[in-house]
Amino acid sequence: MVPMSIRGPWLDSVTPIAPPASARPTYRFVLYAGVVTGAYSGVICLILYAFARVIGVPFEVQGVGGVAVLPWIVVLLLPLAAGVAGAALAGLLRGVRFGGRIVLLVGTVLALLSCISPIVQPAEVIWSTRIWLLVMHVITWLLVVPQIARIVGDADPGAFEEREGG
Hints:
Helix content: 55-70%
Largest sheet: 2 strands, antiparallel
Strand order of the largest sheet: 1-2
Structural class: mainly alpha
Radius of gyration: 20 Å
Number of strands: 2
Number of domains: 1
Order of helices and strands: HEEHHHHH
Number of helices: 6
């Protein structure tokens, strides 16, 4: 049996120790988390891109003018843009019942939809490029979506009612 001093209203939180009601995440904080997680994802994807280029992956993808090499700056900025855009939309769900779950579900669906782009590239794009791009999509999902969902989940009104004894 767990002593009463250890048990508490935070046991149902999506975080190990829930923040007090006065620390509900603000929209600005959700955006900040999107910038940080998107930047981390962009840097990791850039490192993977550099490694893949060294081992011979051409990263030629279909563009407006035909098949061309994907610039490194795109690899860095797209995860950042995805993190910020996702956080901006997710921030609107703060205070919504099951907001964290909604963010996780919608973010996962959007990440899966974004994986269609590497798969449906024309035949000129080799599969090693497609696979590395899919890996970068998965990394961006792993770093951005669950973190933003956790933060939005901390603003769930049902969780705060339970914590405050209401």
